[in-house]
Design brief:
single chain, 465 residues, mainly alpha, two-stranded antiparallel sheet, 3% strand
């Protein structure tokens, strides 16, 4: 009897078991095959961790011992360079000059941006492990967080579990989420946020303060980590107001009050938005945003020029551009990736009574578009700074920048991963897939092919030669 129950339990959780196993395997492959500091801006994030936890001098030792003496600084921008095994062996046992003094701990709220990796790193420091081992600890803890959030997401998502798994298992996503950077927190948290909102929509239960508290907490983590993705929380508007039961005291019901006077809240939100823009009118990002709105055709033209030049490059970055952006998956794998994505998204395996009607699908799609445009606007301002244009100029000058600027720089395809599930669910099909063995078998084959591609690509880039 116990064996039967265990067998049934494994069968019921096979998706989560396979997901966890694949993430752990591929995550550890990324951690150990991708050399230290080769994920874009990884060194900067170690510096940020130190600032968020209290400055203690570890970053300078990382730069001196691992980055320079270990020879890792020779790899970025030099596609022919391989890891110098002798140099790595020479520093593999070097430890920090001091352990972690918790009395120096000066936490900032921003520490959430790197929390899993930072915990792993400082546990290694406290145990007085070698510096290189501490960096592996950071990546391992980031991987563990990714596995936990991924399983929570798959258990939470009421529909399209395979699509959520597919997005989380994008090779580029796995690299980012198992390394030291913002993405290791914001990508899995953002995708979980959307899955949780979908769960609330498909559930028949009333939405109370407990659920709103969870939404607020997850949204806060996203906001602190990378602000534009907090717009995913607006997906809550697919849920009818009648589903909310937010009591204050015994008599006052906030949701009913909002339903009755929604137009007042809408006016107040618009006034608050205008007031916020006015108060922050000297901010370069706000000036860029206002200029884009006032000269929207020019902004659209700028986006066209950008994507005409960088569109395919962004697709490559979203799917798999590893190391220091010099190890790219093949065009054949890109075709396989998009074919698989379409195959998974047109079908459903869940039995659900509710349907996402067109207005709700449109809301999800527009939220994703808004996130993309907001990110483009932020990087547009960064481009002005990079080109040393006058960011203290007025709105008229910023409007002219839309025409003068050839293309927006700094955008990376991985930025679209957190909002990809919104787009896919908005465009999802409803063809019922009855032969689930074939359905899951095709997915297993795809993930094995993806894993082989990743291993081959990274091993030949950094270790063979």
């Amino acid at each position: 009897m116990a064996q039967v129950k265990m067998s049934q339990k494994i069968k019921d959780n096979i998706l989560y078991i396979c997901f966890a196993a694949f993430i752990l395997v591929q995550g550890l492959i990324f951690a150990f095959i991708v050399p230290f500091g080769q994920v874009p801006d990884e060194m900067t994030h170690y510096q940020l961790i130190e600032e968020e936890w209290g400055k203690s001098g570890y970053y300078s030792e990382i730069v001196d011992v691992v980055w320079q003496q270990g020879g890792y600084d020779d790899l970025p921008g030099n596609a022919e360079a391989k890891v110098d095994d002798a140099a790595v062996d020479s520093i593999s046992g070097v430890k920090f000059s001091k352990g972690y003094d918790f009395l120096e701990f000066r936490p900032h709220l921003n520490m959430i941006r790197h929390l899993p990796a930072a915990i792993g790193f400082y546990i290694g420091v406290a145990l007085h492990l070698p510096i290189l081992t501490c960096t592996y600890m950071a990546e391992i803890f980031a991987t563990i967080f990714f596995v936990i959030m991924g399983i929570l997401t798959l258990k939470t998502a009421p529909i399209k579990k395979e699509i959520f798994a597919f997005c989380l298992l994008i090779p580029e996503c796995v690299q980012q989420c198992t390394s030291v950077n913002y993405d290791s927190v914001v990508i899995p948290t953002s995708i979980f946020l959307f899955a949780y909102i979908l769960k609330l929509y498909y559930s028949e239960e009333k939405i109370r303060w407990k659920q709103m508290g969870i939404l607020a907490l997850v949204s806060l983590v996203v906001l602190i980590t990378k602000a534009p993705y907090v717009l995913i929380a607006l997906s809550i508007f697919i849920i009818p107001i009648s589903r909310f039961e937010l009591k204050i005291g015994k008599k006052f019901e906030a949701a009913s009050f909002f339903r009755k006077f929604w137009y007042i809240f809408l006016i107040l939100a618009c006034v608050a938005g205008v007031a916020g823009v006015y108060l922050l009118r000297r901010s370069p990002e706000i000036k860029t945003l206002v200029a884009d709105i006032l000269s929207f055709p020019s902004f659209v033209s700028l986006l066209y020029r950008t994507y005409a030049h960088w569109g395919y490059y962004h697709l490559q970055q979203m799917v798999g551009m590893f190391g220091w952006i010099d190890s790219v998956v093949t065009s054949q794998f890109l075709l396989l990736f998009f074919g698989m994505m379409v195959y998974l998204n047109v079908t459903i395996t869940e039995k659900v009574e509710k349907k996402l009607n067109f207005p709700r699908r449109l809301i999800l799609f527009l939220i994703a578009v808004a996130i993309v445009l907001l990110i483009e606007t932020v990087l547009q301002t960064w481009t002005y700074k990079y080109l040393n244009w006058d960011i203290m100029a007025g709105i008229d000058a910023f409007r002219s920048y839309n025409t003068d600027l050839t293309e927006i720089l700094g955008v990376q395809g991985r930025y679209w991963i957190p909002c990809l599930p919104l787009i896919l669910v908005a465009l999802s099909g409803t063809i019922e897939r009855k032969n689930v063995k074939v359905y899951y078998g095709i997915q297993i084959v795809y993930y094995i092919i993806a894993l082989i591609n990743v291993i081959t690509l990274l091993y030949s880039r950094y270790w063979m030669g």
